[in-house]
Amino acid sequence: MFALAWLLLPDLPEYRTGLIIVGLARCIAMVLIWNDLSCGDREAGAVLVAINSVFQIVAFAALGWFYLQVLPGWLGLETTSAEFSFWAIVVSVLVFLGIPLVAGFLTRTLGERRKGRDWYEGTFLPRIGPVALYGLLFTIVMLFALQGDAITSNPWDVARIALPLLAYFFLMFGGSFLLGMRLRLGYAKTATLAFTAAGNNFELAIAVAIGTFGVTSGQALAGVVGPLIEVPVLVALVYVSLWAARRWFPGDPTVPAPVRSSR
Predict the structure, then answer these.
(1) 148 exposed, middle or buried (CB, 10 Å; 0-12, 13-18, 19+)?
(2) How many domains are there within the chain?
(3) 77: helix, strand or coil
(4) Which residues have C-beta within 8 Å of that of residue 191, sequence separation ≥ 6?
(5) Closest among 195, 182, 261 to 233, alpha carbons compared
(6) Where does the sequence pass through the membrane (predicted)?
(7) What distance in Å separates the CA atoms of residue 153 and residue 208, rounded to the nearest whole number?
(8) CA–CA separation, 202 vs 133, rounded Å?
(9) What angle separates helix 42-65 from helix 187-198, to the nearest 10 degrees?
(10) Most C-beta atoms within 10 A of its C-beta, which of 59, 60, 145, 202?
């Protein structure tokens, strides 16, 4: 994402910074949906989500500082403006990723200990699950209310933000899918790897952009445009993945039955 942002947005530093922040935010939520739709490996997906969650809490701020301040300086490029704050990124990550992760761990640990796994998964999760969706929808509505004028009045800028995102999704998905095939992971794990690599945690990227640069900043706008591009593209890649299962994984037991039966 760093390379694509600099290659395609050399004259738009705010959008470029926003895209780099998006690239640093690894997917930890929607990837489970794409994984299920493509009939990927659920256990492998859960493990990768857990690893990505912990890794972002530990390393996101340091990577942000490196890609926004250090690496551009080494390459003789323009570094991020003085608005950049390492500690603002640390706080944003801890608040918007650390708290939900700790809350999820505690509710599972305490809930299963007191009432058992059946109650936790059959009663508690269905009740608490919609809260996350309501929160996400509220966030999206508020962000579009604040950024709607910028999106509608600058369609060319939105198109320029979309171009590196499109390239990123296709490159990450295609490269990871081919790597999984090369490593003979089987279809299910290959699909999981590809969607984990291609997806991004736009909620975290938007939170970091807002916490560091402000809610009406170009960095936040780049994060808002992201889901508009990601959702339709990754839905399309689900179909690509299922097509590849039929064509490139003959006899693989992890290929979903409906795909095998359509041969």
Answers:
(1) exposed
(2) 1
(3) coil
(4) 35, 38, 39, 40, 41, 177, 180, 241, 245
(5) 195
(6) 15-34, 46-66, 86-107, 128-146, 158-179, 191-214, 220-240
(7) 24
(8) 14
(9) 30
(10) 202
pTM of the model: 0.85
Residue type, 205: A
Among 104-118, 127-141, 207-221, the minimum mean pLDDT is found in 127-141
pLDDT per residue over 78-118, tens digit each?
886 555 677 878 888 888 778 887 888 888 888 888 889 88
Within 10 A of 160 (CB to CB), how many other CB atoms are there? 16
Structure tokens at 57: 């809490």
- Give the amino acid at 251: G
Residue 170 lies in a domain: no
- Other C-beta atoms closer than 10 Å to the C-beta of 211 total 19
The answer for residues whose C-beta is within 8 angstroms of residue 236's C-beta and 6 or more apart is: none
Is 133 inside a domain boundary? yes
Residue 257 located in a structural domain? no
- Provide the CB-side half-sphere exposure for 87 (13 A, CA): 0
Would you say 252 and 190 are in contact if contact means Cβ atoms under 8 Å apart?
A: no
Q: Cα–Cα distance between 151 and 222 in angstroms, integer?
A: 10
* Domain extent for 56: 2-161+200-227
